[in-house]
Amino acid sequence: MKKLFVILFLFISMSVYAFNYPVLFIDLLDKYKEEKIELIVITSNNHQYSGLIKLVQQDYILFEGSFGTVCIQTSAIVEISEK
Question: Phi/psi zone of residue 51: left (φ > 0), alpha (ψ -120 to 50 degrees), beta?
Fold first, then answer.
């Protein structure tokens, strides 16, 4: 059983490395910002925003769309999808 756990752990670790997935959520947001990918962000209070990330900090992002610029706490983000 221990060998199976180690093998599964190594497999998952290698797949994360092989596909260049960001390890941290902040890194993923930063990647979206750098590539200027248009996103749809849904927050915990059921607000939906569509636009681009302008600034990524440890606990918030500045998000800009047709509605203007809004500051969203990263802990309030429920879902992110590419538009």
Answer: left
Residues 64 and 61: their CA atoms lie apart, in Å, by 10
DSSP-assigned letter for residue 41 = E
Q: Where are the domains of the chain?
A: 24-82
CA 9, CA 1: separation in Å to the nearest integer?
A: 12
Which candidate, 33, 36, 38, places its Cα nearest to that of 74?
A: 33
Q: What tens-digit pLDDT sequence spans the chain (83 residues)?
A: 777 777 877 777 766 655 666 778 899 999 999 999 999 999 999 999 999 999 999 999 999 998 999 999 999 999 999 98
> Domain 24-82 falls in which CATH fold?
SH3 type barrels. (2.30.30)
Between strands 39-43 and 60-65, the pairing is unpaired
pTM, entire model: 0.71
